[in-house]
Amino acid sequence: MSAGIDLENVSCDFGTFRAVDHANVSIKPGEFFSFLGPSGCGKTTILRMVSGFIEPTQGVIRIGGKDMRGQRPNQRPTALIFQNLALFPLMSIWENIAFGLEVRGVDKATRRAKAEELLRLVDLPGAADKMVSQLSGGQKQRVAIARALAVEPQVMLLDEPLSALDLKLRQHMRAELRAIQKRTGVTFIYITHDQGEALAMSDRVGVMSHGRIQQIADPRDIYNNPVNGFVASFVGENNVFEGDLGAVSDGMATLSTPHGQFRARINAGVSGKGVKLYVRPEHTIISAAAPPENGVHGTVHEVSFEGAFIAVHAVSDSGMKMVAELRNDGSQVVPAIGDQVWMGFDAQRAAILPDADTKR
Amino acid sequence: MQDLIRRYGLGLTGLMCLIVAFWLLMLVIIPNITLFESSFRPYLPVTEIGGPRDTYSFDNYLKVFDGSIETTFLGIPITVPVHVMTFFLTIWYSVVVTVICFALAYPIAYYMAKIVNPRSLPTILLLLFVPLWVSEVLRAFAWWIILAFKGPLNSLLLFIGAIDKPVRWITDYDAVMIGLVYTYILFMLFPLYNAISSLDTNQIEAAEDLGAPWWKIHWRIVLPHAKPGVASGSVMVFMLSAGSLLVPSILGSTTSQWFTQTIQQWMNDALDWNTASAYAFLLLFLCTLFVSVVMWIFRVKLSDIAK
């Protein structure tokens, strides 16, 4: 069983500080939805409002269509996984998992059986009688997931649960979480500041900044078609050119900058002077000869080998630092430090975007 | 030690150690040993001390069994030695004081540790400490005035209409209970506060999120975590109550007798320091035994309390 969540015009103030500003989002039943943003952007506040620890200052939160105003956390069909997991250290693993059932008056034998079943689901059989302190970080993670699943929530809320794990384990748990979500069909709301995590796991991502939801889209769209400069630069790297807008036609525009004249796609709502053009490093092309358009001449000053790709850092003749990422498959000639090169990009791969949406 | 010498020099360090050693030896260890030794010797005229009748025995300890009274226990009439009766009443009422202190201190400690805005905490602590600036004698005496039959408490209750005739507060052990709870509640409050404030608030929220009602959160999460604090607070309140002399003397009624008062009567009225010592050590040993048994029942280790 899973339920959808609707946030209708939800705002939350702490004193004079507005933590969440008019959030509108509709999360479908069974969806894996991530809120992505830097710390202090309001994503945890949204999670705590959905779980019921904070009441919205205005707006309505519905879970499965039901208005949640005035419902305490213990009355909501949600289960929250805390950043520090908040396992009960004085209880054994199975008692931890069965706590939600104990509260509901389920008898001991049934509780124990359910705990064992959930331990198998999270791939941790035989840990029932251990204590929390005997488990590793990844195992504690699984216990926390099992404990939340035990109450058969319609919505699982996860507050950066992987942030304490090391890189390898984190990548493993990403896949694990995704698999558990698919197996159980429960709606997941995931909070993270790690864009890789959000893009890899989610069906859809909501990117947040300064309490406002900037963009809601599937991971590909977030990365390939960011709606504004904040989303573009928070989700991935960019070479950014600032200049004055020229002619606009058919969604394409020219931009005059101190580094040259460029042509790129343009989003609605951008006009005037001091606008910015964003192009990803992997879409930046390095060549010996000048490209037909969007070319910048410069000197390579650093080449760093990153494994899957090679990052070429160059400074244009006009003094701007740029990065191009070349695939490490031998298909391209890797320039050496000090080489004179042309850096360019396809007009379709670059976008002129407005700044972040911060209006009240 | 090395650190102390380096910091204060050999002379000052030596002086400090000497003072502490003097205090320990002359004011704690030697008096206790002397009392312990004399508790096994009979009370004799000065001329006979060290004479043939001055031998070691348990006679002083066995005096608690002298002189019985008739009473009822759970409706069954029984005959109990007077001092044994006093001893059990002292233990019983000390337990009651401990339980009342816990019941009052737990909500306050939880409020201070988890609910109150940290900015107003210093004010609350100050309010709790202010009464301690007044001497214990004066505070007990103040309660004696407050609880008097024609005292301010009865006047207030009559005025607001809570009672229609004055209540006799200073009767049986009632006023002693009130005085002891008042005097020792902070010894329960602070260990509890320390224990509860070390609990991760996320655990309380996690329990609530999993559907636990408030009492279940306290029973399964907060109380087990606070157990060492409950234990050390209870041990302190119990031992201090059982060993209190001032409060039972000032707030006691004609029908109340605390075991420490019996000791004092042996010492001051009967001038029999030997029996008084024996009674004092009896109280110490039996209270320690009682506390140990209770700790064993509740599976609390001594090292938990030391935290």
From TrEMBL, chain A:
PROSITE patterns per the record? ABC_TRANSPORTER_1 (PS00211), ABC_TRANSPORTER_2 (PS50893)
MF (Gene Ontology): ATP binding
SMART domains xrefs: AAA (SM00382)
| InterPro entries on file | AAA+_ATPase (IPR003593), ABC_SmlMolc_Importer (IPR050093), ABC_transporter-like_ATP-bd (IPR003439), ABC_transporter-like_CS (IPR017871), Mo/tungstate-bd_C_term_dom (IPR008995), P-loop_NTPase (IPR027417), Transp-assoc_OB_typ2 (IPR013611)
> Which key words tag this protein in UniProt?
ATP-binding, Nucleotide-binding, Transport
Which residues belong to any copy of the ABC transporter domain? Answer: 5-235
The name this protein goes by in its record: ATP-binding cassette domain-containing protein
State the source organism's domain of life: Bacteria
Q: Does the keyword Plastid apply?
A: no
Species of provenance:
Paragemmobacter ruber
TrEMBL record, chain B:
Q: What is the official name of this protein in its record? A: ABC transporter permease subunit
> What organism is listed for this UniProt entry?
Paragemmobacter ruber
Per the UniProt record, which residue ranges are transmembrane? 12-36, 91-112, 124-146, 175-193, 230-251, 276-298
* Protein localization: Cell membrane
Q: Which domain of life is it from?
A: Bacteria
Database matches in PROSITE patterns = ABC_TM1
* InterPro entries recorded: MetI-like, MetI-like_sf
Q: What is the lineage of its organism?
A: Bacteria, Pseudomonadati, Pseudomonadota, Alphaproteobacteria, Rhodobacterales
**Topology term for the membrane:** Multi-pass membrane protein
